[in-house]
Amino acid sequence: MLNRALRLMDGDIITRMGFFIGDLHRQIQQLYKEQYAGTTVADTFTVYRGQGLSTGDFEKMSKIKGGLISFNNFLSTSKDREVSYAFAESNQANPDLVGILFVMKVDSSRSTTPFASIAGISDFQNEEEVLFSMHSVFRIQDIKQIDGNNRLYEVNLILTADNDPELSRLTDYIRKESSPDEEGWYKLGSLLWKMGQFDKAEDIYQVLLDQTNDDKDTAFIYHRFGMIKYSQGKYEEALTFYEKSLTIRQKILVPNDPELAKSYNNIGAVHDDMGNYPKALLSHEKALEIRQQSLPPNHPDLAMSFGNIGVAHDNMGNYPKALSSHEKALEIRQQSLPPNHPDLASSYGNIGLVDSDVGNYPKALSSYEKALEIRQQSLPSNHPDLASSYNNIGAVHNNMGNYQKPLSYFEKALEILQQSFPSNHPDLAYPYNNIGLVHENMGN
């Protein structure tokens, strides 16, 4: 039940089982210290895991050969290849799954990822089980068919070392993004929001609001309410909360405080989605002005502001200004972010949008495909930004007269959004509309 909750990011179960998760992690850490403490010379061994992957997840993994893969559950492996092979082979009966035998090389002297042999305490001692804690990260070395069977594959992995430069850069940035200054219920509310558990996040923040008399905390909570409502497509409510937060912050903060820029940034995003483009542009320019005064020139938040200004100009038909802003955003992100970071995909997507608007469809398609490639590497398979990429690629093919191609892209976009949003969310209108346009162009 726990591993299923971790895979599906079920906030309710994860919250209820938080103490158990922490206890299990600490037990694995303790066993790791007892079994591998002081190992300084190379001590490499191999473990195996057999499981089924959906065809979609397998295709995604195949595209990132040489890249990183993370298991966000407690990972059970075996030193016995035959035991794991049997698990992999058993998945062939399901036409929607591909049987995978993971072959994992582990050097205990180079990594501090907690793992431990639990053969001595397991009910299945003959399986020689090695249990890894959550979020173990491996590098994909090779993917190959087993005995020419296209429904059974061996995937060779190596457990990453602490000095892996790509992993270090990516985890450092994620750590900065994941509310490092928040604690307790504030951090829980943030995590629930990021997991899409909007109602639970709102309940947490309401409790915090009822308990505080501090203006700074009140402004922060109103801002978070705005983020929740925005994520739900409730733009008028989001705007109300953002403006409440801004009013308080203007009273208690200095004029160039970065928190003010966050308020202007999010107010601009709401205006943009409501079609109030001049107001959106004004808000984003205020955010940029504050950030230029208070942040270093290659800070990712500056890229965010340039990107948002570009979107506003694009929506107003100011295409040269839009392209210039998006190129500035891309340049900053290339300097400050890992090459597979989703924000780079946003820049490529925005540049593609401008090129599409001016009729430069081949160039737009190239940018959209770069954005999709990054998102497939870095986002879960049902993330709304993937739907945006599929929608954009479909639209370009439709504009180029390739009427057979766009339908599958629009249907993929719709499928993702149906999984991610309530049935009345405004973003669902886009793929429905585009599917209708394709059928109209095909005479259906």
From TrEMBL:
Database matches in PROSITE patterns: TPR, TPR_REGION, TR_MART
Assigned GO CC terms: extracellular region
Lineage summary: Eukaryota, Metazoa, Spiralia, Gnathifera, Rotifera
Keyword entries, A-Z: Repeat, TPR repeat
Naturally occurring in which organism (per UniProt): Adineta steineri
Lineage: superkingdom: Eukaryota
Residues spanning the membrane: none
SUPFAM superfamilies: ADP-ribosylation, HCP-like
The protein, known as: ADP ribosyltransferase domain-containing protein
